[in-house]
Design goal:
83 residues; YtzH; mainly alpha; single chain
């Protein structure tokens, strides 16, 4: 059974929050973020603001597989709470 977009968004938020708290991202977490963002980016039922946030995450993640800056994560978390 496929997971819903809301479940994927919650998982993405959990991963981002964990990374923000620990200032560390494992290779598996980075891969999971990449898969979630790619999957969610293709969901046309999501609000344009959410899709813009996903695009921002994807762009920064593609350029840098290091933990994300705290300011970015904070902004993304606020945007991802628009459900």
């Amino acid at each position: 059974m496929p997971i819903t977009s809301q479940t994927k968004l919650q998982l993405l938020k959990d991963l981002l929050q964990n990374q923000a708290n620990e200032h560390y991202m494992t290779t598996d977490e980075a891969a999971q973020i990449e898969r979630l963002v790619s999957s969610l980016s293709n969901d046309t039922s999501l609000e344009p603001e959410l899709r813009a946030t996903l695009s921002s995450i994807k762009q920064l993640h593609t350029l840098n597989h290091q933990p994300f800056p705290d300011e970015e994560v904070s902004q993304w978390m606020n945007s991802l709470n628009i459900e």
